[in-house]
Every structure is written in C-alpha cells, then in structure tokens.
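User: I'm putting together a small comparison set for a docking exercise, and I want a reference complex before I start. The sequence is below, and the ligand is iron/sulfur cluster. Could you produce the 3D structure with the ligand included, as structure tokens?
Assistant: Of course. I'll restate your input first, then give the structure tokens for the complex.
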Amino acid sequence: MHRLTAAVSTFMADRRHNALFPGSDQPAFDQPLFGHARGDDPLFAWIKQDIGPEFFWTPHEAYQMAFPEEATQPEELSVIAWVLPQTAATRAAQARATQTPSLEWTMARHHGEAVNEALRRFVVEHLAGRGIAAVAPVLLPQWGRALSTRYGFASSWSERHAAHVCSLGCFGLSDGLITAVGKAVRVGSVVARLVLPPVVRPYDRHDAWCLRAVGVDCRACMKRCPAGAITEAGHDKAACKAYIRGVTGPFVAREQMGFAVSSCGLCQTKVPCEMTNPTAKRSRRARRE
Ligand code: SF4
Ligand code: SF4
C-alpha cells in the first residue's frame, strides 16, 4: 500500500490533477485517506443481500465483469478505498450556506468528481504498471442505478459501502459516511487482484461513529436539511432527491454553473461530524475512566 499511497500523494499534489475547477490554483480536495479489505470479507456479501441481491455486486462480481477470462477466487482480491476530504475553504463556504449549496461545494461536486474519476483511473493504471490487475467498479459500463426494495435509490456498487468495509468510516443519520476526517468528503474505490495484510475494522456496527449511536440526541443534520429529508427515522432519499431536482439543481444552473449539478450537501457541514469522528473523543474518555 505504501507505494500506492505515495504515488497518489504525488498525483494529488499536482494542481493539474486536483483543482477546484480547471486552471484553479485551489485544490478540489486535501490529501486522501486509504483503507482496504479482503475481497471475500463477509460484510460485502451481507451488504449485497441487504441492498439488493439481484443488482448489487460483490468485489468478485465486479472484478469478473472486468476480467471475465480470469479464473479468480474472492480471497485473491482486495478492495482499496479512499476518502477525499473537502478543503477547509470549501467547508467554510458551505457552512455559511443555508438553503442552497455554496459555489465552492458545487464545484467540488462537479469538477471534484472528475478529479475522483481521474484518481480511480490513476490507481488502476498504477497497479497495472506493477502487474496487478484492478478495476474501478463505478467506471465499468455495466455499473448502473437501481431501486432497492429496502432502501430506494441504489446502484450496482456503492463507494460509501466499500469505504465502510475498508475501515474508513460509518454511516450517520443523514446517510453520509462519517470518516476520521468527518463526512464532508467524497469517496472512491478499486478492486485489485492482490492480497493485503488483514485489518480489524475499528467498529462493529454501521452507524458506530454517529453521535446517536452513543446515546447523544444529536439533531444537527436534521436541522441543517432545508428539505426536511432527515428525521429520527433517517434519510428520506426521495425527499432529498426531490429537493435537489426541484431546488438546488435549478439554482446551480441559474446562479452558479449554467447547467444543473446534483449539488446540495448542506447536511455535511456545520454539524459535529463535519470534519471529525465525533464519537472518538467520547471513546477515548470512556477508555480513560
Ligand atoms: S449531525 Fe449528528 S446525528 Fe447527524 S450524522 Fe452527524 S453525528 Fe449523526
Ligand atoms: S443533501 Fe441536501 S436535501 Fe439531501 S439530506 Fe442533505 S441537506 Fe437534505
């Protein structure tokens, strides 16, 4: 992993690859965090069953789609995932926004996802250069959106779920992934044919890093959401999507970019989990007592 993270660090330090918008001297993201998991980690199979066994991929299924001629076993694969932290400037601008996203956030959503896509390709090429076959599942032509019976809008591969299995974070009430650097992040992943040292995940439930999981009646993300899409029951994906489609998308087209972008993310800033795992301090305190 060290060679890969060093290569990515150099890639991301180059403003031609990591700019808030083309030609900007501001980075889209801070340096990424990395995690990994075994390709046969049972949590992948569990997530597939939970979200949609008919459309959701395990790492092995994604890999086989890219390399159908190879006879691989799940245990020969690893998933490598990363977290791209929003910069302090983007977070600060977004924290001032109340009904519609800041321009910085929208640019990080639009141009930043192009940075993330280029990073996926870079990681695949870097590994290929070392003789390691890899695929970024979301870049596969077969990747697509689907409807989960339990959760509504879903897709064949979820970057956030991959990052969760790879020890990078847990889901908050708003469905965002709370990582060690908070939930103002974007995430990415690849499946590679290599075996990495095993890791023990630092949590045993999907929402362990949300304050509500440790008994705090946090409602910060509920209050931040102008659409009322976050309640005690969790994140209402349909209401969230309707707000983005009906309000923030048209706002972005009209006032910011000249075209619609699925940008909102107000629930990702000005909350206790914006830039940290808010349960970490509590766990440290509890260990000391
Ligand atoms: S703002 Fe509070 S309730 Fe919402 S995800 Fe973060 S810690 Fe959980
Ligand atoms: S993305 Fe926007 S609409 Fe959706 S839950 Fe977060 S704040 Fe609400």
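The first strand starts at residue 33 and ends at 38. The radius of gyration is 19 Å.
User: Thanks, that's exactly what I needed.
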